Each structure stands twice: as C-alpha cells, then as structure tokens.
Amino acid sequence: MKIPTGGILFFDSGIGGLTVLAETLPLFQKQIFFYYGDNDRAPYGNLSMEEIQKNVRGVFQELDTLNPRMAVLACNTATAVCAEDLRMTLPYPIIGAEPAIMPAAKNGGEVLVLATRATCESERFCRLCDRAHRLYPQVKIKAVACEGLAGGIEKNVLHGDFDPTPYLPRERPTSVVLGCTHYIYVKKKVEKFYACPVYDGNEGIAMRVHELFDKNTSKNGIGRDGRPLKTPTFGLNDAKLVFNPKKEWKIARREQIFHKKAYLSAHLESFIIDRNGNQIFFLGTQKKHNKHIFEQMFVKCRK
Ligand code: DGL
Q1: Parallel, antiparallel, or unpaired for β 248-253 and 239-244?
Q2: pLDDT tens-digit series, residues 190-204
Q3: 75 is catalytic
Q4: Active-site residue among 75, 120, 146, 196?
Q5: How far is ligand 1, taken at its centre, from the CA of residue 149, in Å?
Q6: Is it the case that residue 2 has pLDDT exceeding 90?
Q7: 250 torsion bin: left (phi>0), alpha (psi -120 to 50), beta (else)
C-alpha cells in the first residue's frame, strides 16, 4: 500500500489534538490528514522548554518525508513553546492552538484560563494576556496550571467516570478558557463544575485550517506553492511503502529506499476514511491507540 504525501498534519503530545482533528474534518472532503501523537512522551506540560522543543523538532524532522501541505500544532503547549521556531524552519504553514481568551473576555468579569504549566509560563501566553488586557482593560485574567490533568485525561479518556474536579482550582469565574486540547474531553464536566461558559479554541483552529487551505487553492487546482491540490490519492505520490519478507516496512522514494521507523508505515489498522471521504493516517508508535480513541470518541468510520 502506498502512503500519500501532501496531507494536513496534526500534531499533539498525545490524544488532545484528536479533538481538533474532529472539529476540522467536517469542513473537508476527500483530503488527506495525518495525525501524530507523541503519547509515549506525554504529557508535555511539565517538561522543560528545551525538552519540548527537542521532542517537537525531532518529530517534525521525522515527518518531513510526508511533505505535509500544512501542519496544525493541535497542542497549546507545543504552540506556546515551538510555533515560532517551526515557522522559521519549515517550508509549509504552521497553524497553532492558543487559549481562546478573547471571546471569553467579551463577557467581562474574571476569565479563568486552565492550561499546562509550560503554556502558562511561556512568553507567548504572556503576550496573549497583554493583548487581551489592552483590549479589555476591565477584565481580570487568571491563569492556573492544572498539574496532572492532561496526564489523567490521557490515561482515562475512555473511562466516562474520570473526574477532573480534583485538578480544578476553586474559583468563581465569569468564564473559563480551556487552554489545553486534552481538557476538551472533560469540557462538560468543567462547565458543570464552574456553572459558567467554557471556551476552547477548536472551532477557530478548524476554520483557520480551512481558510488557509482554501487560500492556497486556485481554480485550476494548483496551489500557490505550485503543487497540485486535487484530492491526493495513493497512486499520485512518489512515496510508497514496500513490505519485505522480514516483515519490515520501508519507504521507497524517488528510487531510493530509506529504512524508516515503523511509525511511518501505513498499516491498514492505523488508517480510516471518514464519512466525508477524508483519509486519516495515524502515525507514531501509538497510532493504533490514537485511532482507537478517535473512533470511539468522534467518528463513524467507513473503514
Ligand atoms: N494537549 C496539550 C495542550 O494543548 C498538551 C498536554 C500535555 O501534554 O501536557 O497543551
């Protein structure tokens, strides 16, 4: 089976970005998506900036062979720490995830932002808070790092009885912002706990991905980067997977054969087609796990 290139790549430390993918897919038809979760090293939130940068850079280097059309950092932590770095080094657009403070601030009062420690301590997040303060000077913004919550969700997502409330600060905010894509799995429970509006950035990210994809698409199906934007199919691409008798997958690309780690293989069990005909390839050592979570939580699949 050949693996397509030129898809839209979603990255998260683990399962959080699946919530962003789920929000994005209905806006597309017959496109290629890749999902990479770095679950083995999740959660990222308490790692140092250097460790997060090293992990994310490493993953993007490994995935370079897929030649993504654009990438979505479906992770507030990775965005806070790595977005600028990746934008300077990669040739394709990078869309990030940022806490949805602005829509929440419109309600006035106190905005409680729940995020990971790395996000709360990042310069990028401070700049976002400054911008919000300038626009809504009366609004009080309080950011709290929910230690352990992303890890708890990562482990317990399929257990409907997981209780996030021990991780939540005791506050009486006007609005709450979920500044971590993992937290979106427990959004309803957070709403119930605070009895106030709870915001996340997923709709905004999905719209941005769609807008950027559209912008790059001209009428004749050639993108601004000169690459064909017609629905990629397995046969169109120069990267294909070859199965050898030693049960090892290799990628044959431009007549050279590169041994690649198993996660770049397109085993059928890590691939689905959604009801819009989008093809989603799950990558990384936890690809089967992420696919399973995605199917359980979000998609009625055709395959
Ligand atoms: N899902 C991620 C975020 O949006 C990171 C969670 C973690 O790995 O700590 O921040």
Answers
A1: antiparallel
A2: 999 999 999 999 999
A3: yes
A4: 75
A5: 10
A6: no
A7: beta
116 lines ligand 1 (CB under 6 A): yes
Task: Tell me if 153 CB under 6 Å of ligand 1.
Answer: no
43 Cβ closer than 6 Å to some ligand 1 atom: yes
273 CA distance to ligand 1 middle (Å) = 26
Phi, psi of 145 (to 5 degrees): -85, 120
Q: What is the pLDDT of residues 101-154, one digit of tens each?
A: 999 999 999 999 999 999 999 999 999 999 999 999 999 999 999 999 999 999
Average pLDDT over residues 45-72: 95
Q: Among this protein's residues, is 301 annotated catalytic?
A: no
pLDDT band at 269 (very low <50, low <70, confident <90, very high): low
Distant-in-sequence, close-in-space partners of 36: CB < 8 Å, separation ≥ 6: 9, 10, 11, 12, 59, 63, 283, 284
pLDDT at 206 over 80: yes
Higher pLDDT, 179 or 300: 179
